[in-house]
Amino acid sequence: MRDATVGTAASEDTAGSVEDPTDKPMRGAEILVRGLIRNGVDKIFGLPGGAVLHIYDELWRFRDEITHYLVRHEQGAVHAAEGYARATGKVGAALVTSGPGATNAVTGIATAYMDSIPLVVITGQVPLPVIGTDAFQEVDTFGLTLPIVKHSYLVRDVRDLAAIIDEAFHIASTGKPGPVVIDIPKDITAHICEEARTKFARVFADDVPPPADEAILDTITDRLINAERPIFYVGGGIVTSGAADDLMKVVELLQAPVTPTLMGLGGFPTAHKLSLGMLGMHGTYAANMGVSEADLLVAVGVRFDDRVTGKLATFAPQAEIIHIDIDPSNIGKVKQPHISLVSDAKSALQRIAARLEAREGATLNAGKARREAWWKKLTAWLDAVPFGCKYSETEINPQQVIEELHRITNGDAIIVTDVGQHQMWAAQFYPFKRSRQWLTSGGLGTMGFGLPAAMGAQLACPDQMVVAVVGDGGFQMTNQEIITAIQYKIPLKVLIMNNGYLGMVRQWQEMFYDRAYSEVDLSISPDFVKLAEAYGALGLRASKPSELADVLERGLAHEGVTIMDIVVSKEENVFPIIPAGQDTRNMILE
Amino acid sequence: MRNTLSILVANEPGELSRIVGLFSARGYNIETITVGTTLEDGWSRCTIVTEGDDAVIEQILKQCSRLARVREAKSVTSLPHIEREMALIDVSAKSPADRQEIKNLVDIFRAKIVDITHDRLIIEASGNKEKVDRFIGLLESFGLNEVARTGYVAINRLTAEEAESHSATG
Known about the structure:
The complex is a heterodimer. Chain A contains 25 helices and 19 strands. Chain A is an alpha/beta fold. Classes of the chains: A alpha/beta, B alpha+beta. The A-B interface holds A 142-143, 146-147, 150-152, 154, 156, 171, 200-201, 203-205, 327-329, 331-333, 336 and B 10-14, 17-18, 21-22, 25, 42-43, 55, 58-59, 62-63, 65-71.
């Protein structure tokens, strides 16, 4: 094999160094690892295979500068990198081999794409000369991932590699972030590069900041002051651009209500007096009613997702819509706004805040006075239908679990969830204080995301409490990563909301399919406490309300990995719910 | 509504599939697609004819503009423009009369006979969609054996100012 012999030169070097000896010829694998380090990567999640052997050889040499975390399945690697990226805003990195390594990574890449999470995913590929021959572990990774990446590369010349790595990190992290895939044939990682080059066309829309449209900003400011029934509908863009403080400033100046989407949770403190709580299918009554009666909808960093709008025609029917988003294609994609501004949320809100501050106090006060009747209405809605939690002597109520978790963690924990009922209960019953405290798979809705993502978040934030709140279904999709947490002494805390069902699907079957519980019964499951013990983790179970607080307190206080199996009432439903595609007035409250 | 889009994209492997993939992923249809080099090294112009109302076209253009290697995406149709397609037409000419009649049509449509045997002709024709369609339609009665069409290329007409500045600079 030619690539086995080419790559030995660099291995003779005894130890790696971060300093870039640009004059020194080096093999592709070393260029790659140095490129990762140069771009700030000190943690990478992955699993080796034939096509990435040279890269792993270099990682071994550079192990003091970059720590590799060996996952047990590539999906876990990408979710862990996502967890790291979501918790910090930095680019997460994952490394997988060709063929099945790449296909296993696809779910994670798509998850990151839907939620605009910055990732660089390195995939091994069979050597260039055998590409297209159906070689062992060959798959067209470039083609497979085309619709789920912000950008991607198939490296064809080792001289391009250094520039590709730098550009990949740039593209992943600028503008609307997203995953970038670098597919590297094995022989490229072995080839010696005598002289690097940057020959590819360097253009990128995100490098050109959109023009500051002063006239539109003035118009928006006027509308904000004059609106009688405004609502700020804010999403992941607030979190991504770090605009939480600017949003706070704007809405406090205006005394205007705010409703975050699922992805926007934490971007505005849930408990703040201007917060109406979450919007959408499982959002609050007040937020949804508010939008349906608002005269001005200020949509910032959102994309009018169907889980938010329900029936599009009756979404915000009375409102003038202002849409601010960094992605021009989001504007008018599903709902045509009256006023639009292509901008990141932070700079837009900053500029609006400056304009508001420049206005006379009397003008602002007159605006606030106009909104008094609106606040009376909103407050009445908030009081009329708060999120409700039932308590029982015999069964643990799932909402109660989140309430207890909130109490014990003092509302400070980073909550990472899977997808389903537990996700919605966590969103509803854990009031968030800050951005990046809530990490969830919103767009793709990926079960199995929670546990490995929590692992990545915990590594990114070693001083914070990170809790993976998962269901018994999703937990079983990626629980192999418990051993990764054990191996690297990552103090992962996993809280399983165990109702013995694929609960959200069961809820829909109950409500919309005449209770035909088709293939949702998970009552035959492993003993999660014993499973935890088999992995060397602390396993605890609470089946009765009287056991709940003790289990959570002990589990969260434990220094190592804890799996808490919380057996909750089996057929509890998530309320309120606006059935898919219907309008707010069809909201089912209980 | 039929719309012709012009997209300036880096001439790199895979970039065309990114554009085509975007059309299929978002449910847009491609009627024709052509790609060719431009005056600028490393850049290709991709002309796509598609269907859609203004909102759809705007979405397509925005989606294309998001791609890292797309420098410009515009609709040619929205402004005065010139659109051309070339066709190679293999048509039967079984008698001298047929051959003469076809030659008359070729002259009228300013096409060209580029190959000939005792009972067949290959004709090169170019023009806008209507012209090429009509020409092929008129040849049908002689017996069409094969037609290869290039798809459309398009360019915006010079505006009055541009025309002046061009003549001024010579």
